């Protein structure tokens, strides 16, 4: 079993063991450990917790590199949701596809 630290001195073992025994409680524990999860809309928070716990399980034997990437990505997403202006801008609408660019060799896309 591994003993890498997530945050605040807690070990990843705790989350993997909790996930195996009771996934709902593991998710609740993760939300308590990562307070920035509260910035995500409820549906995104569920997706985040599910993905992070899945990455913990899947990465337990490989050094948890996918978990670290997912954690950083979700934290950035939560930070964007925390800024109301950024959240509005990132939800669109967007101004289209942009200009048509020539393909290499001179042909248009």
Overview features:
single chain, 109 residues, mainly alpha, 5 helices, 0% strand
Task: State the distance separating the first and last CA atoms.
Answer: 53 Å
Q: Quickly give the structural class.
A: mainly alpha
The backbone outline, from C-alpha atoms, is flat
The gyration radius over C-alpha positions equals: 19 Å
- Strand portion: under 5%
Q: In sequence order, what are the helices and strands, one letter per element?
A: HHHHH
The counted number of beta strands is 0
Quote the average pLDDT.
77
Please summarize the sheet with the most strands.
none
Oligomer: single chain
Weakly predicted, low-confidence segments? none
Provide a count of the helices. 5
Determine the fraction of residues in helical runs and give it as a percent range.
55-70%
Instruction: Give the tally of structural domains.
Output: 1
Task: Explain what this protein looks like in three dimensions.
This protein has 109 residues and is mostly helical. The chain has one domain. 59% of the residues lie in helices and 0% in strands. The protein has five helices and no strands. Helix 1 runs antiparallel to helix 2 and helix 3 runs antiparallel to helix 4. The longest helix has 18 residues. The radius of gyration is 19 Å and the shape is flat. The mean pLDDT is 77.
